[in-house]
C-alpha cells in the first residue's frame, strides 16, 4: 500500500506566506487552526477517509 501525504502543517515566522507558497506549488487548499499555524490539504480529499471497509 502506497503512502499518501494528506496534510502539511507549517509553523514559521511568516507561516501564511510559506503556506501560500506551498499551496500554490502543490495545488492544495489552505487553512488555519489559529494564529501562527497554517495547514495545507489536498482539495477534495477527505481525511480521515470514512469509507467503510477501507483499512486505516
Taken from the alpha-carbon principal axes, the silhouette is: elongated
- Sketch the topology as an H/E string, one letter per element: EHEE
Number of strands: 3
Please report the number of helical segments.
1
The average pLDDT value, as a whole number, equals: 82
The main sheet comes to: 3 strands, antiparallel
- Low-confidence spans: pLDDT under 50, at least 5 residues? none
Helical/strand content category: alpha+beta
Rg over C-alpha atoms, rounded to the nearest angstrom: 13 Å
Q: Helical amount among residues, as a percent range? A: 10-25%
Q: What strand line-up does the widest sheet have? A: 1-3-2
Strand content: 25-35%
Alpha-carbon distance between the termini?
A: 11 Å
Which short descriptors sum up this protein?
56 residues; alpha+beta; 3-stranded antiparallel beta sheet; 3 strands; 21% helix; elongated
Give the secondary structure arrangement, pairings included.
Elements: E1 8-10, H1 15-26, E2 29-34, E3 37-41
Antiparallel strand pairs: 1-3, 2-3
Amino acid at each position: 500500500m502506497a503512502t499518501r501525504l494528506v496534510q502539511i502543517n507549517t509553523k514559521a515566522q511568516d507561516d501564511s506566506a510559506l503556506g501560500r507558497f506551498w499551496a500554490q506549488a502543490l495545488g492544495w487548499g489552505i487553512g488555519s487552526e489559529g494564529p501562527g499555524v497554517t495547514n495545507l490539504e489536498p482539495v477534495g480529499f477527505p481525511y480521515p477517509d470514512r469509507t467503510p471497509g477501507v483499512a486505516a
